[in-house]
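Researcher: Structure prediction, please.
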Amino acid sequence: MPTKLLIFDLDGTLIDSSADISKALNYAFQPYGTPEVGLAETIALIGEGLTRLIGKVIEEKAPGLDQSLVLKRFLEYYTRHLADNTRPYPGVERVLEGLSRYGKAVVSNKLEALTIKVLEAVHLLSYFEYIVGADTAAEKKPSPLPILTVLAHFEVRPDEALLIGDSIYDIEAGFAAGVRTVAAMYGYGDPDFSKKADYRIDSLEGLFEILARQD
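Model: Predicted structure follows.
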């Protein structure tokens, strides 16, 4: 079945936002004497959304700390600095331009307002017709609900869509929604996350070959 709709994850798939997330995370925890969270450690934690990200750090480094206080400080900082160092991966804009005949959406576990703001900051927002964030649907990835929300918006069947993401949460969400999945191997996920994916790509340009085989 030819593909009509492309659904993209954001962090680790379209953009490398790890440095800005890491800085915001350390700013949020700084008053509490929590050991610094390194960049590699931050990357390993990204994927389940902000609440879970902060919760994991608290569990490991600051048991008992009030999560709401940390979350407030994170949002205060990150909202002002979410694109200081964040950039699209190489070739992303060229690829999106070359996919103009497909419907395109972003499904992120980042809050919807922040997802829109960072896409705008890195000049990618105009390529997408629909944005779903962590708070858009009643559940977030790995639930299939955000994916089903996108399918309903575009009035597209699951077998007419392709989900591209860099984490197990993306692959599980796509699988549960009946959508074919593409593992972005260049992103943040451990290589094992791709075991259930239908396809694997080492750069976003790999999408062209996958789509050419389907059309």
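Model: The longest strand covers residues 103-107.
Researcher: Thanks, that helps.
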